[in-house]
Structure formats: structure tokens, C-alpha cells
Amino acid sequence: MQPIVPVSAFNDNYIWVWNEGSSNQAVVVDPGDAAPVIAYLEKQGLTLHAILITHHHNDHTGGIDDLLALATKHGWQVPVFGPKNSRITQITDALSEGESIQIFDQRVEVINLPGHTLDHIGFYCADQEALFCGDTLFRAGCGRLFEGSPEQMFQSLARLMELPADTKVFAAHEYTLSNLAFAQAAEPENLAVKAAVEHDKAKRENNMPTLPSTLSQEREINPFLRTTSPSLITTVQQEAERLGNMDHLPSTAVEVFAFLREWKNRF
Q: Could you tell me the pLDDT band of residue 246, with boundaries at 50, 70 and 90?
């Protein structure tokens, strides 16, 4: 396995740096800010090999130009891999579901993940057991629906859960503690959530990232992946009744997901 390191940016972003190791080359994922990435590359003596972009939001793309300027200065050839049908002008290789790229000596598959945005994609490397999922799946949470529908995000999450259970989830934000607080409200009897709260609070108190998670862990603690859980459905229906503005209580998995996402927005 090759090291994948989080570089902190803004209030809670993680820019992931995948270091090849032997050649001192690195791939950068979703560089919203170039400054901390450049500082990390220089400190570690790394050459920029490629940039991976999951979607068009500025906190994931804002550092591309400065990184490409650095590459030009050093004579590095740096492709920018990102989604097709996107407004990201710096993309050199536009990708969508079913395509793959070669990173170092490893195959990286592209997965379409509409929901948070319509152009959102993920990158999955089986050899690294690594998933770069941007703002689609977080530890104990999922992204807001800025452009896509609840059905699209539900299907995107279902697509990710088809990957091997030990896949490591390299999400782009440190939202874990607030996500877990919501998970406890949505499923208060879930002991796995309670254990995760204790574990991750200790990590944050020591200024450690709670990521990566794994898909197997997410199955146990993430309410947006547990929409068929009887206890969660009960809580959702009780909350819907409390609001008193629904003609039909959420019952199907997609209805429960949609209600959870709206509930989380105001939580």
C-alpha cells in the first residue's frame, strides 16, 4: 500500500495526497487551496504527478491554477482528471462511469455519483483499497443535495456500497462529529454509533483526522445507508408526525433517505 495523507485546508476540508513512494511523485485529490499542498510537496520533496477532481465546487478546485503554475515552473507534465460535462475548465482528461485511468502502476476506476452536484464522480483503486468520493459519502453522513435529487444521491450511495467492504473512504471533509450527533438522533439505540462517537471524539481532541472510514463501518453507523433499519424508520416517522406537515409518512428506503437529508439540513 502507498501512503495517502490528508492535507488540511479551510475550516474542515481534506486534500488527499497519494504518495507513490519510490519515485517521490504524488497525486493530489480535490485541491481547493494550493498553498498547503505546495508546502507539503516541498517539505516532502515530492513531484506533482496528477490532479484528481471529483466535482466543480470551488473548495475542491480553487487551487488547480496555482498547482499547474508550479508544474510549469518545474517542467512537470500534470494531467487534470475530472468529470465530463463539468464547468471545470482546467480538466485535461474528462471522465465518466466505466472509464479508468492509470495512476502510477495502478488502475483507478471512475464512478458517476450525481446528487451533491450533477457532475460528481468518484475514483476507486482496488489495489489501494481506496475510494476518493469527494462530497458524496462522509463518515456517518452524506453530502447536501445542491443539484441532484434524493433518488440520485440514494442510487449513488448504493453504487458505492457495491464496492468491497474493506474499501477505505477518503472523504473531503471533517464533518464526523456533527454527522454522528445526527446519527444518534436518527437511531438512538445504535450501539455502533455510540462507540464511534467515543472513538472519534478522542481522535479530534488529539487533533487527529477521523478519516478514512471504511464501507463496512459506514454500514453500521451511517443513517443514510441504513434506510431499511426498523429502528431508524420508526424514528423518522415519529419526527415526521411531530412536524405534522406530511400527508404520507416515509416508508420506502428512498422516502426515508429524502426525509433524513432534509432533517439533517436543519439539524
A: low
Give per-residue pLDDT as tens, 219-241: 999 999 999 999 999 999 999 99
**Region for residue 220 given its phi and psi (left: phi exceeds 0; alpha: psi -120 to 50; beta: otherwise):** alpha
Q: Are 130 and 215 in contact (CB under 8 A)?
A: no
List residues with catalytic annotation. 55, 57, 59-60, 116, 135, 173
Q: Is 123 helix (H, G, I), strand (E, B) or coil?
A: strand
Global pTM reads 0.97
Instruction: Tell me the average pLDDT across 100-113.
Output: 96
pLDDT (0 to 100) of residue 247: 77
At residue 248, the pLDDT reads 83
Distance of CA 44 to the CA centre of its chain: 25
Residue 115, CA atoms < 13 Å, CB-side half-sphere: 27
**Edge-to-edge strand order for the sheet containing 93-95?**
4-9, 13-19, 25-29, 47-52, 80-83, 93-95
Dist. CA 182–CA 223, nearest whole Å: 8
